[in-house]
Structure to design on (690 residues):
């Protein structure tokens, strides 16, 4: 993370401008995507006036403006954007300027239909929506980079330019392209990864089904086939597809750094819901600060999922501050039923991101569109206009963010529990030809997170790049892909005092998707002190009773204890595994390694977790009456320790025994913080406070 995340509008001489609505010093950024090209010129003046009223400090501009900026291959029209940039500069509102390459204009796709992506079954994805381009198309790349260079040259000295926004939601609709361009690029990627055909044939296990390759030209992406495609080919294609998009990100970034070396570069990730195609931990080092888009998916764990995703973004960012580039003020437009948010949800959703490390709160979009596919997507200024409850809530949030200025620039304080999230395991565990097609990697991880929230225990989502020793307990659900080096690291973690917890279908394969032989859980078998000869997947709706009163679903293992140090915590009470271990724990060194062989769901995990946390000395920091009703998150910096208390309920919750000065929220007697329905409070403590 770089200090320029705390964006300051520059004056004409490059110095900070005096008419900055946010005032001096670092602060939390507030803003939105701004699409003035959708509106007549007379609306722009009102936009700027309302932005200042709402406390907006930054807007993202030109995200989908390629056709307006370059009407034809030989024409450029920057006049309107010049005027917008100048107008925003005069109002003290900074600009996160997009490179506008997200959606190619009609003249380009008409002249070069070979840039259009192709699905696995050979269907061309035609223009008419967005992101209709191949990540590996050299023709698209040439035109896109020409646009990037033109924009960088034109605006490199503009005082309003605060950051560059590369493309937009890279891979949202075009992550998997199976075209001939992709095939050529895939082969080159494989050459670099394996060096020789012999290496590739070994990694892919091509002795099976007569798939051995004798020439690189024989290799294709996993297009629609008569049966299940080679599993390692599928996994490598996922890795390649993420890398192809990352390569495009690098290409745009290099031009921006060449021309504007002092302007930070970002792109908006999509850590939310089922978005899985981009390996964001590997992308994080390519940009100057991590940004993310998030939209709430309705369901019983909707706000838990929001917290989970924000927490994971912080893990991807290494615990450093990041940028919430998009979320919604109210309803979206793309769900089967698009319900409006309830009163209080706008602020709580926003501040929950801040609690987990966001130094910026931005929405899609500033003014709700009158036409187009997203005209029913909410915005900061709705169709009803500024005389609306929604705009009043937007303005109130701007005030709250100004009050939270001391939080800006602080890092996430490590929680006692870490939940390990691994993209390779996510991709590989859900492929075809497996024991169960019902397995949901992200849902299993989310269930553990929800159970910890229900117990009032702080947890961090972390990646394999993190320092795992910072957490007293490390939960690694469905850690399916375990290379030898990771197995050693997890063993060292437990032997040096950490408490590892892992689950069914973990440790089963290496990085090539080859099974670790000798019995399951493969690479983790000795560490866990258990062995299974076969998996026991369960049918949809089928459950098995456990002797602690909980029920397992989805999966069982026929476990045998192989080490005297392994303790059986829970056994199966019925079914074919009746009497056999269901949950085990093996002491090793100063720590332990536990194994959960079935899916317990949130309720079962909530019951089990204290038995796994107690030996590590981990419990809730909240008073008992607030546990499960309040979520806590902590940020820390030179200016103090900032404790966020988030009401997870629709009722009023008093939280007793709290120390520190209230930056936001309502205080009561004797250190009580009173949280109204869906409210958030923030306490500032001394830096060494616990």
């Amino acid at each position: 993370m770089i200090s320029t995340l705390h964006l300051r509008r520059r004056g004409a001489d490059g110095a900070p401008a005096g008419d900055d609505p946010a005032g001096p010093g670092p602060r939390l950024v507030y803003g939105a995507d701004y699409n003035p090209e959708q509106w007549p010129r007379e609306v722009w003046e009102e936009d700027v006036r309302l932005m200042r009223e709402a406390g907006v400090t930054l807007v993202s501009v030109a995200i989908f403006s390629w056709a307006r900026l370059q009407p034809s291959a030989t024409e450029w029209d920057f006049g309107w954007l010049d005027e917008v940039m100048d107008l925003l500069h005069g109002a003290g509102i900074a600009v996160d300027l997009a490179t506008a390459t997200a959606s190619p204009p009609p003249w380009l796709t008409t002249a070069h239909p070979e840039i259009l992506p192709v699905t696995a079954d050979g269907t061309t994805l035609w223009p008419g929506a967005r992101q209709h381009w191949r990540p590996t198309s050299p023709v698209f790349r040439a035109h896109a980079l020409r646009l990037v260079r033109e924009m960088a040259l034109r605006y490199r000295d503009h005082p309003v330019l605060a950051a560059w926004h590369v493309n937009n939601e890279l891979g949202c609709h075009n992550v998997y392209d199976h075209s001939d361009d992709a095939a050529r690029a895939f082969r080159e990627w494989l050459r670099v990864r394996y060096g020789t055909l012999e290496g590739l044939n070994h990694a892919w296990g091509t002795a099976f089904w007569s798939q051995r390759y004798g020439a690189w030209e024989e290799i294709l992406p996993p297009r629609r086939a008569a049966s299940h495609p080679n599993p390692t080919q599928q996994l490598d294609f996922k890795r390649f597809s993420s890398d192809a998009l990352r390569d495009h990100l690098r290409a745009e970034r290099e031009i921006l750094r060449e021309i504007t070396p002092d302007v930070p570069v970002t792109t908006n990730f999509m850590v939310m819901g089922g978005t899985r195609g981009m390996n964001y931990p590997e992308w994080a080092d390519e940009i100057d600060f991590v940004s993310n888009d998030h939209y709430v998916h309705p369901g019983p764990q909707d706000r838990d999922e929001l917290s989970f995703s924000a927490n994971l973004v912080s893990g991807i960012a290494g615990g450093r501050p990041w940028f919430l580039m998009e979320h919604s003020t109210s309803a979206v437009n793309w769900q089967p039923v698009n319900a409006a948010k309830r009163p209080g949800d706008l602020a709580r959703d926003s501040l929950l991101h801040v609690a987990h490390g966001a130094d910026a709160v931005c929405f899609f979009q500033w003014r709700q569109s009158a036409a187009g596919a997203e005209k029913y997507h909410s915005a900061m200024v709705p169709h009803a206009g500024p005389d609306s409850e929604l705009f009043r809530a937007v303005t109130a949030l701007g005030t709250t963010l100004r009050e939270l200025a001391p939080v800006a620039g602080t890092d996430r304080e490590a929680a006692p529990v870490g939940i390990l999230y691994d993209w390779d395991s996510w991709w590989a565990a859900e492929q075809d030809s497996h024991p169960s097609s019902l397995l949901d990697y992200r849902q299993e991880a989310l269930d553990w997170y929800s159970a910890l929230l229900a117990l009032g225990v702080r947890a961090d989502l972390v990646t394999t790049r993190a320092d795992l020793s910072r957490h007293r307990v490390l939960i690694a659900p469905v850690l399916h892909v375990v290379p030898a080096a990771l197995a050693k690291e997890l063993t060292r973690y437990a032997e040096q005092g950490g408490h590892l917890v892992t689950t069914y279908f973990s440790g089963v394969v290496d990085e090539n998707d080859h099974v670790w032989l000798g019995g399951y859980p493969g690479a983790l078998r000795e560490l866990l002190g258990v062995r299974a000869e076969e998996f026991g997947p369960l049918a949809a709706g089928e459950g098995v009773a456990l002797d602690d009163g909980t029920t397992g679903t989805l999966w069982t293992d026929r476990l045998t204890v192989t080490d005297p140090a392994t303790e059986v915590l829970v056994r199966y009470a019925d079914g074919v595994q009746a009497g056999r271990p269901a949950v085990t724990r093996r002491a090793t060194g100063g720590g332990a390694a536990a194994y959960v062989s079935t899916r317990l769901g949130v309720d079962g995990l909530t019951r089990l977790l204290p038995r796994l946390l107690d030996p590590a000395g981990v419990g809730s920091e909240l008073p008992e009456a607030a546990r499960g009703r309040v979520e806590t998150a902590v940020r820390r910096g030179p200016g103090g320790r900032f404790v966020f208390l988030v009401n997870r309920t629709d009722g009023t919750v008093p939280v007793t025994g709290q120390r520190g000065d209230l930056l936001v929220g309502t205080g009561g007697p004797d250190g009580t913080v009173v949280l109204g329905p869906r409210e958030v409070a923030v306490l500032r403590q001394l830096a060494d406070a616990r």
Remarks:
- Residues 141 and 212 are 33 Å apart (CA to CA).
- The first helix runs from residue 41 to 54.
- The first strand starts at residue 29 and ends at 34.
